[in-house]
Write a structure and sequence with these properties.
Number of strands: 2
Radius of gyration: 12 Å
CATH superfamily: Winged helix-like DNA-binding domain superfamily/Winged helix DNA-binding domain
CATH topology: Arc Repressor Mutant, subunit A
CATH class: Mainly Alpha
Structural class: mainly alpha
Number of helices: 5
Distance between the termini: 19 Å
Length: 83
């Protein structure tokens, strides 16, 4: 499911999947193992996400996504924030 604000910016379902994995703190290489995509494909998704969201870098995009989806990183491991 793509969040409405991101859907309006043209974010695809696959890009949203990558974005949520980024929000968990996974690297491109780690993400590539998940949906069985190549590292280069993940890099392309990340570049498009940066462009579509206006985020200057991966770190800011990850933080903004974590804040907006209820996911947060703690001590290097992703945890779901309590409601």
């Amino acid at each position: 499911m793509v969040l409405e604000a991101l859907r309006l910016r043209g974010v695809t379902a696959r890009e949203m999947e990558v974005l949520l994995l980024m929000a968990q703190g996974l690297s491109n290489r780690e993400i590539a193992y998940r949906p069985v995509l190549s590292r280069r494909t993940i890099e392309e998704h990340v570049e498009r996400l940066l462009s579509k969201t206006g985020s200057p870098n991966r770190s800011e995009l990850r933080v903004r996504t974590a804040q907006n989806t209820g996911h947060a990183e703690r001590g290097g491991s992703a945890v779901h924030a309590a409601p």
